[in-house]
């Protein structure tokens, strides 16, 4: 029986920049512009210690500040050093990397990922999102879910059914919404010349957890962990 590959998709939608209520953090890249002082314009990435290097004034700590607060802080440093009088400093975001999410579970490459200049959404299988100590079960097929920095996403096993017997490709396959036995057989490559669509068996766990085998038809709905057996035709 072949192994099912379970994946997670990150769909990214561009946003204009850091919202007014969000704060700068290590890894973010900013552009510092000083009005009527083009030589002082600089681009910098916030270091792990939360600082950027600004011409003339040196290191300035901007971690935890909004863009407007960072601009005021840098302007104050210019005045304090008597480099400029009443400077007008504008700080804009060029890359947002401080917001990261952890992706764990049944994924090809688990790890931490930056929400780089984006507002990230998930789509695909059912996942669990851990946020601020609370778990959220998210059905990705029902509705996209907006991620936030610090979220932990755990990708669970996708629901599957099993098909074997007189089909072209026996194995395990994802269960789709309202999937019928006919569609399940198609997923398995169809019935072989030796098989019969009139001789189908279905094994499903009962209320007591024991497997119950019954006859099934092409129109029956498939459920997770169902086992479909296509028997040989009677000649």
Describe the structure.
There is one protein chain. With 235 residues, the chain is mainly beta. It has three domains: 8-15 and 97-155, no CATH class; 29-95, wza like domain (wza like fold, 2-Layer Sandwich); 160-232, Outer membrane lipoprotein wza domain like (Outer membrane lipoprotein wza fold like). The protein has helices at residues 67-80, 181-187, and strands at residues 8-14, 29-34, 42-45, 51-54, 58-61, 89-95, 100-105, 111-114, 118-124, 127-131, 134-138, 145-146, 152-155, 160-165, 171-174, 195-205, 211-215, 227-232. A hairpin with a 5-residue loop joins strand 16 (195-205) and strand 17. The longest helix has 14 residues, at 67-80. Residues 1-17 have low confidence and may be disordered.
Q: Name the strands of the widest sheet in spatial order.
A: 8-7-13-10-11
Please, how many domains? 3
CATH architecture of the largest domain: Roll
Helix/sheet category: mainly beta
CATH hierarchy, class of the largest domain:
Alpha Beta
Q: Kindly state the mean pLDDT as a whole number? A: 82
Helices and strands, in order, run as: EEEEEHEEEEEEEEEEHEEE
Number of strands: 18
How would you sum up the major sheet? 5 strands, mixed
**Unreliable stretches, pLDDT < 50, 5 or more residues?**
1-17
- Total number of helical segments? 2
Shape category: rod-shaped
Query: What helical percentage do the residues reach?
Result: under 10%
Question: What do we call the CATH topology of the largest domain?
Answer: Outer membrane lipoprotein wza fold like
Tell me the distance between the termini: 29 Å
Measured by DSSP, the beta-strand proportion falls in 35-45%
